[in-house]
Amino acid sequence: MLTLENFETQISSAILQRGKQYYQNQAVVSLEETGENTWQAQVEGSQIYQVELTLKKGNDITDYFCDCPYDGETCKHAVAVFFALREQMPTIKSKLKEKKSAKNIFENLLQSITAKEYQDFIRRYAQTHKNFKTEFELYFASKDERIDVAKKYEDLVSKMIRKHSDRGFIDYRASFTLAREVDKLLGNGSEFINKNNFKDAFTVSRVVLKAMMEAIMQSDDSAGNLGGTIFNAIELLERVAEVKEAAIELKEQLFDFLKEELSNKIYFDYGDFGYQMLDIFQSLTIQLNKSYEFLQFIDAQLLQLTGRYDDYHRDTLRTLKIEFLQATGKTIEAQKMVQQNLEIVEVRQGEVNKAIEKKDYVEAKKLIGEGIAIAKGKDHPGTVAAWERELLRIAYLEKDTATIRHYTRHFAFDRGFTQEYYKQWKATYNQQEWKQVIEKHISDTIKWVTDKWANDKNKFWHPLHPPLLQLLAPIYIQEQYWEGLLALVQKENQLETVLQFHTHLAPHYPDELLQIYLPMFEKYGQKADGRSAYADLAGKMIRVMKDIPKGKDKIKAIAQNLKEQFPRRPAMLEELNKVLSN
């Protein structure tokens, strides 16, 4: 749990330092509690950024947000606000009693004023707060059928989109705040459902869905904010569709709405929104007994999907139709369609699963072999690999050791190193057999890499030695061949590369590692430029001192030497002092 007391231990040192500097430089220009447990702040950086956070139990930070473009988990502006809040917390706590007393006054007033006084206040308040009247009418919409809920929500969403648009475009930063505002409207929809007001919940969700789909086409939504809001709107539609208490007439309207919207390709071109909506559409089809209309719709969509980039959508609709036919008992039609669409991976997979359930492994392998040929013809290596994993599954069922060994070895090294398959491969041998197998694999790898390295000597870029480390290191670690791993690591001249294997080698070869690290630390320090690089160097030096205590004095000597070489770099001196103080 992130709190105002422990956040310094849970945030990276670089971000923490920058946030602290912002706080010390008084960049937090405003900070106020805007609601119960909710705080908003403005932080001055290259421009003014808005930070919002939620506190529980006084110190627990349960949620926070900043509208700056930083993509990491916690930005420096949020950290600056953490520091500011912690500084003010004693004062804040001292005001809690006053707030509680003020709350009692407010509650007493609500109980004591008359209905006419309520009404007079609301009329006057609505005149000076332009959105209040709309929000008031929407909140009580169920009490007056004359209120056009759809129109009012359309106006509200349109205003929000215009407010966050610049000449019709919503930029990266604006997408954060727009999404948060529209999500609050969707929160109204959830309240409507809780009050069994399913009609207005449907209205909110469809208005937001259509408006945000138009907005996302004219936006930079690389952070996924608007897409998230669209998914939230679809989830609200799904809640309306699934609730048993909703009137059949309302579900008919939802069915017709989805049917119309799903004819628009933008729901599929700008994300997976359409596929989630298709699931709701299918569920409603079964509830409303509209099988014929559903199948008609699918067929109509398939006729339109003739483009070269429509394969995925077309395959998905065909698979959906097969599943629907099977679910509704039309097994003959479903099986006929299966045979016509075995080039679709999901359809063929269904037939493979049936064959395996019947223990007809010959048929299953035949289907898989055909699937591999199709995938290779389409140049889909991922699909080929998926089918090969199915062959491995069958090999285990048949206890076919030769095939198990073939595929586990293949998958252990196919795309980098995969420990799971390596262990499965190893498990097929006894200890004596394995020693011979793995040592032959190692010698074959060394020969292949070395020969290739020698043949490539005349190429523009050529490593100083055969690049064996990344290929053999995982094997040496699994087999605890520490001497072989050390020999490869000693040939490297990159600090980050050596540190990848530090944990494995430090307990066995501390002296040898020190010989590698010391000149590297010196070299890194001379090339380091900027606070983050200095902090990174210091962190690495401290780590090595902790794991190899006998090298502490030598590493500190390098830190001292670097301080003397660069006395005018205060950030470097500050970071190196951390090394010297350990």
Describe the structure.
The chain is mainly alpha-helical. The chain has 29 helices and 4 strands. The protein has helices spanning 13-24, 76-94, 96-112, 115-128, 132-139, 149-163, 172-194, 198-216, 225-242, 248-261, 266-269, 273-288, 291-304, 311-327, 331-340, 345-357, 361-377, 381-398, 401-413, 419-426, 431-455, 469-479, 482-489, 495-499, 502-505, 510-527, 531-547, 552-565, 570-580; strands at 28-35, 38-44, 48-56, 60-66. It has a 4-stranded antiparallel beta sheet, with helices on one face. A hairpin with a 3-residue loop joins strand 2 (38-44) and strand 3 (48-56). The two termini are 28 Å apart. 26% of the residues are buried. The mean pLDDT is 90. It comes from Rhodocytophaga aerolata.
Task: Write a compact overview of the structure shown.
This protein is mainly α and 582 residues long.
Percentage of helical residues? 55-70%
Low-confidence stretches: none
- The Rg value, from CA coordinates, equals 32 Å
Total strands: the figure is 4
Beta-strand percent range: 5-15%
Q: What is the 3D form?
A: flat
Q: Termini separation (Å)?
A: 28 Å
* Main β-sheet description: 4 strands, antiparallel
**Mean model confidence by pLDDT:** 90
Q: Give the strand order, joined by hyphens, for the main sheet.
A: 1-2-3-4
Class based on secondary structure composition and strand pairing? mainly alpha
Number of helical elements: 29
